[in-house]
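Quick one, tokens below:
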């Protein structure tokens, strides 16, 4: 950890060798994230290059005063860089059968909510549409509106600015202090469960299914809460 901090300090001072050493040291981290995007219609080597850009941004923006590992800080930035690439290159690819299942699942969810008087579980949705739990969960993810802290916070932001960029931005000491205050204020207004969803989803990089299991709720509930929370955070950020 001490060596890593020293390399980061040297990289901030313009030492290219130190920066390259940090990238080499974290290549395994980049690949572990890239593999999650396999099957999206892109070569993994191309996504690795995009992920490397995210890592270099994390190195350049890393605040040495933070009590956090570089790898922990870099995960959301690497993931965000890949997601932005997939989004800007025509949105993450979703197969036609998955889109059709997403439509069927959405209609089934509305019917079941009306008849049951509550939100249906994944199992109930799977029985209703005649698909497996895994297929239904995937269709819900595919059919969900793209709500993310990596989504631009302004319509006219030509530089692709997003909530995560604003939070992680490192221009000066005053900016760093302000960013911490903003993030703390945004999360403070959330309930305990909502905070857990955001922290687990974007800082621990867990899937909605895993989070649902840990919190004792359905994946559908996690998906809906996540979208609702991120909409609120973006609105607060714009204010």
């Amino acid at each position: 950890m001490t060596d890593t901090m020293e390399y980061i300090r040297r990289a901030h001072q313009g030492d290219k060798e130190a920066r390259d050493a940090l990238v080499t040291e974290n290549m395994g981290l980049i690949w572990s994230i890239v593999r999650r995007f396999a099957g999206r219609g892109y070569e993994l080597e191309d996504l690795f290059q995009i992920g490397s850009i995210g890592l270099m941004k994390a190195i350049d923006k890393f605040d040495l005063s933070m009590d956090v590992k570089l790898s922990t800080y870099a995960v959301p930035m690497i993931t965000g860089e890949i997601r932005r690439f997939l989004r800007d290159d025509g949105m993450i690819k979703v197969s036609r059968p998955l889109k059709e299942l997403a439509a069927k699942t959405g209609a089934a969810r509305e019917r079941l909510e009306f008849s049951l008087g509550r939100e249906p579980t994944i199992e109930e949705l799977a029985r209703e549409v005649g698909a497996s739990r895994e297929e239904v969960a995937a269709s819900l993810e595919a059919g969900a509106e793209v709500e993310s802290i990596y989504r631009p916070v302004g319509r006219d932001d030509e530089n692709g600015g997003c909530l995560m960029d604003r939070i992680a931005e490192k221009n000066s000491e005053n900016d760093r202090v302000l960013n911490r205050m903003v993030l703390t204020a945004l999360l403070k207004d959330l309930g305990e469960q909502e905070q857990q969803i955001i922290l687990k989803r974007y800082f621990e990089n867990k899937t909605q299914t895993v989070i649902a299991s840990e919190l004792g709720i359905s994946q559908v509930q996690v998906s809906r809460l996540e979208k609702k929370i991120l909409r609120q955070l973006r609105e607060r950020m714009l204010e």
